[in-house]
Specification:
By secondary structure, the chain is mainly α. The chain contains 3 helices and no strands. The N and C termini lie far apart (34 Å).
Length: 72
């Protein structure tokens, strides 16, 4: 994961590439807070970028695990 310069605007292709990378990491189980720390960006920036990219965000408390045979 690339650490970004704090305060630098991320636009255009760079933003799209970052969004793609973050989507992949988030889908693999990384939290928004972990992604924010790794990229040197705020929680709000990562949340907004994932949201704008169409990612279905997990509920509070992290990834949920379902028990075999139990439907939610």
């Amino acid at each position: 994961m690339t650490t970004l310069a704090k305060g630098k605007r991320i636009t255009g292709t760079e933003r799209e590439l970052l969004a793609k990378e973050l989507k992949k990491r988030y889908a693999a189980g990384a939290s928004i807070r972990e992604l924010a720390t790794e990229t040197n960006r705020s929680y709000g920036f990562i949340h907004r970028l994932l949201n704008d990219s169409g990612v279905k965000l997990r509920g509070r408390g992290g990834a949920t695990r379902s028990r075999a045979g139990v439907k939610r």
